What we know:
Radius of gyration of chain B: 25 Å
Oligomer: heterodimer
Shape of chain A: globular
Helix content of chain A: 25-40%
Largest sheet of chain B: 2 strands, antiparallel
Order of helices and strands of chain B: HHHHHHHHHHHHHEHHHEHHHHHHHHH
Number of domains of chain A: 5
Mean pLDDT of chain B: 84
Distance between the termini of chain B: 94 Å
Shape of chain B: globular
Structural class of chain B: mainly alpha
Number of helices of chain B: 25
Number of strands of chain A: 25
Distance between the termini of chain A: 53 Å
Strand content of chain A: 15-25%
Strand order of the largest sheet of chain B: 1-2
CATH topology of the largest domain in chain A: FAD/NAD(P)-binding domain
Number of domains of chain B: 3
Amino acid sequence: MTITNDPKTNSNTQSFPNVTVFSDRCAGCEECLVRCPTQAIEMDNFSWTITINNELCVGCMQCTRTCPFSAIKIESEDLSKTRVQLSIHHPKDLLLDRSETRRGITNWTDALAEASRCLNCPDPTCVRGCPTHNNIPGFIAAIRDGNLDQAQEILSNTTVLPDVCSRVCDQALQCEGSCTWSLAGHEPVAIGALERFITENSNVAPIATKSDKGKGLEVAIIGAGPAGASAASELVANGATVTVFEKNSEPGGLMRTAIPEFTLPQNVSQRVWENLKAAGVKFEFGKEIQTAQISELKNKFDAIIMAVGAQAPLKLPVPGSDLEGIVDAVAFLEKADNLLREKKTIEDLYPEIFKRSGNQSKSESSKPMILVLGAGNTAMDVARISRRLGANATCVDWMSQQFAPVRPDELVEARDEGVDIRFNTTVSSFVGEKYVTSAKLSLTRQEVATKLPTVIKENAIDLKVDLVVMAMGFRLDKQLTDTFTMLPYRKKTPDMIDRVWQASGITAVPSVEWARGQSVGKLSIARENARLKAGLPVADNVWVVGDALIGPSTVVEAMAHGKHAAVSVLEHVRPREGDKTSGKTKTNVLVIYDTRSGNTRDVATNLLSDLSQDLYSTVVTPITKVNYNDVVASDIIVLGTWIEGMVLANVKPAKPTLRWLRSIDTFGNKPVIVFVTYGVNPKGSLDLLEKEFAQRHAKVLLKKAIKGGKAQAQLPEFKKQVKQIFNQYFEKHN
Amino acid sequence: MTIAEDKKITEADRNADSFEHYDPIKQAVHLRPKNKDNIHERFESTDPPKKWEVSKNKRVAAILKDRRLQFLLILPNQIVFWVVIVLGIAGTADPMLNFGTTITWFLWFCLVFVMMAVIGRAWCSMCPFGGFAEWLQRRTFWQRTQKTLGLGKKFPEPLARWGFLLSVVSFLILTWIEEFFNIAGPGSPWETSYMVIGIVTAAVAFFLVFERRTFCRYICPLSALIGSVGAMGSVAGFRTKDRDVCMDCKTKDCMRGSEEGFGCPWYTWPGSADSNLSCGLCSECYKACPSDNVGLFLQPPLTSVIAPKRRRADIALSVLLLWGLVIYQQVNATNVFASLDNWLTNKTGIHYPNPIDYVGVIVIVALITGALILAAGFAFGKKNLDSYKESQPVLATPQKSLLSKHPKALAFLLPISYGLIPVVGADYLARQLPKFFQHVLSLIPAVGAWFGHGSAKSSFYTKAILGVPQIVAVQIAVIGIGTLASLWAMNKIFNRDLKPVSRSSAALRISSFAIILACGVGASVLYFIMHAAN
């Protein structure tokens, strides 16, 4: 297979981009040079500034986004070539139709043309945008080579659900929104369609054994959804014994119950479970594990991963909401999906509701009316399946359309299928005697995404309804949040964004057109912070992942969490019995120091000099450089800081230390050693640090104050104490 | 199981970047290697000796890390300048007794030049104009904040490409205004007051429209002078401790800002800084660096004049124009000039300084000096320098910038103009000396006036520290030192940058020395004439 269009030459185009380097401001840091996909940037060693060859430039503007001093200006027409057009299947007769509506790329010519639009960026922002960080340029390059098996293999490093995600992900807010073309204001590479092309034209590989790191480990996974699937897959691939508990009689979780077949065919959503069964994962269906039963379960398993989802549906607290005929979306969808398969209609779904309407004439206007509360993806599913079952559907959502978390293509399809979707509309009350018969709708206004809408007009419209389905989202089960009070972790972007991410350029565009005006950088960083938290246990040997960790999110995020938690289990948990050393990794000690004059740094760097490198691996890092990934990967944390303040007044640990501590939500119950170097008197600094750590779920095992000038004299004793702690930890865990 | 003692953790292990841990992003990133060719040769001439790092001292390190450092430097100046503004309007109308005018023109204006000649950009770290505007822009006095005030625009490239020449132009305009209204004379205190208000307003406007210190870098009237001529005084600067660490740095916190420090307000990267040309000594990079890889270094005198590999055309032209300005300020005190200016005033109706002779003198002096340099270069330099750009780094000038089309002219103009820096700087310093020596004591009654003790009757009101002949002697001594420094620098510059391009090495060396001597002697003679005219 040859590449027809190499994206790295723009020989097809007559005009080259207009390139300007502000050589007055260019400092020669080469941040742009290392990231230019076409190697158009060279270094001029005389002036120590860069030069750009505009004949090689394709106008992706990666350089302008990564330059710290904004010293590059690129003016270019769109050189990204035309994006592949994907077809939408419109069933001739919607009634009882189950065929998939969204179609993928159907032939190699289109696939190669689309794959050739990918620039294979050296610092691919799409990979950061993807919640599970698929190596997107990697699998696209494999497509260009015509090697789909290799593409599958690349995908399998990070995802167990490529076939599902390529169908249900909202790529515009993820990989495609952060594609370099999208950040440049052009149409991104159709990453989702290419991923789907791979899975549709080659078999998703069975789960292969990667290592025996998890040999002897017995892990319980509660919940057979996407998070559970990816955790189970990672664990079983590394030799662990995995048991999945599922309250329903079939696996799949929301993938099965909440996503209808016309979006996700059953054979696709079931594929991963077949693979897991084949790999030896045990399933216990019909078994609901309550949060209270966790400690009981701990006696039988080495680690527990809770992937129970967010189960409590949100309810609309308005008059009449306790009437009959108001049901919740997941319950509705599960029933409706079965009904569709059995070729029955809406009258069979809730006979007690619909029988009163008597003989249905099948004209559009006399069909039963289903009111869907919400206009997210689930609401669309409810409405579209209702149309297939022979009903009319109206969706109302109080948000503005531009901020609503719905895939735009989903919205278009739903409208094409005759669903009435009204944004900026909410229900102010339901009317009816026993059953709900009508709903009073009110108009709302929402100007910014972060603020809740306000109702501007009460009871504007009266809508006659036969059934109301609530699809406004879910929240965590109360038992779960009562037991683990830190849950849910809200996804958020810190004020000071991660500079490694910033360096990639993903945050440089505050409003990305393809991502419906949102900042893909901020969204991605928020998702990444949540993913990293999935690697930290909420209690000894208990991990929580997916929607249960952060509230309602997406299939791909849940899957990414599952994998990270499984990696963490493999790194930190040893079997209760049997051969404890098998697959043993080194104990990771993370030393973090905050220094002003260098005293604290000296202590920190000398502290671990006697440790055996066979048993320990250590990272010593200034507090300004701590990588949260290292916090997750560490077994023990040592924090050293200095004391600021006047001799007597306002004495406390250094501000940067406190600021960093307070920016961390959780340390996942890790053991901590703290020390301070002080000039006159550390006063209550150590206690304050201990308190701050305790609030963030860390156990301080040793506190030490070292007098600045006498650090060398005090070091041996401190080292001895630290070693003792390490020994204790070591004996407990081995 | 106990800890085995046999294998110790090595230095390399301890400094490992991070644990081996599942990081899917790392697998997909394949950055191009950086071009580090000749990086050590490129910077070795300007890198200060490692052992001259002042920040190795723990006390110094602690002071530099303190976020309040710059605030505390700015604060006293800030107070003084608000006092100047208020007293200029509300205080006594006698400029010799008004604290505002006396401190501005008899002390501050001399100190700025002393500072410039000794520590280069030091003034910028404590400047109350930029300082005040920056407080507004950052919405804080010293804390690291994330939310800024203003539009944060980038300075447009068509202007930015002129580099420091914009600043020279604004200095020429401000000086003309100052001479026209006789503000520095000093004239009426309210004029000084208005001038200060004008500068502050301009600074605030620029800080609120553009990002970082665009004002200081491109517009500030003193920036070009302190940046270019101040190169003679750059005794210390923030430089990288280990350039490889900077090159391999993944975050560039010194440029982008971190929790501890703002990104460089001056668009300077310690990793490639070879002088303090555009470094305001604000210490933000020192605070921001996550690797503790920025140090405050002392450097041998005149390093920034002699050593930079990349000589900039805008700096060379700035030096020539600023030389023209200081000569103008000497010439304007002569009788010949006075009659010329009077004649022009009659013709045009604009009184002293008439813009025609003002610009005329400056440009003619700059042109003559430049022409002398080029004449020497073309007479004794190699005829064919086509292969020169590839083989010699001195020619590196801003791309698409001034004169870059004339590499041959630049080959001589740049090094010799840099060589002139000390003598030009010395002349600026000497020019301010009379006001200081004659009038600085009037500060005493000016301060005393606040407490009801100062008056025009005070003996300090008119008392001079030195008499005119002594002042002229000091001025000539200063010029003499500057000339010697220039000659010394020129010799070094010549050996590195001019020898390879000269046809007759001795003749070119002598000509370049002669140009410097001519400048020094010319300036000295003018001081005689000026005072004779008085």
